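cron nightly-structures :: item 1 of 1
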Amino acid sequence: MQKYLFIVLLLFCSMNGFSQNKDLILGKWLNATGEAHIQIYANGNKFFGKLAWLKEPLDAYGKPKLDKENPQNELNKRPILGLVFLKDFIYKEGIWEGGTIYDPKTGKTYSCKISAEGKNKINVRGFVGFSLLGRTETWTRVE
């Protein structure tokens, strides 16, 4: 009986550890340039990220910066602050993958994967086609 209880306890602990790893990216992150805070959150079993703070949220005319480079004309007038630009990531074996990252500076969307470097740094890699053809930024947790 003790043997079965130990096995059940071990399984419960390992499932709890898996959940903690999966949720490691939840929270607020400072991007590599220091221009933005990104709030990463879960919706069901997928992960998303939105712009929660901008160092310079206003344009030269004192108005909120807009998504003016978006190729979809109906989206050109939406504010960048609050924009969901990380979409549809699924946690798989230590990596959040299968998602996309949108760059409001260029209006382009890229495939993306995210990996953790401890609990306070994540590596965000945007790419076209193959992961080898891309760029990685390291983001730091905002406490």
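cron nightly-structures :: done
The beta strands are 27-30, 36-43, 46-54, 84-92, 95-103, 108-116, 121-127, 134-141.
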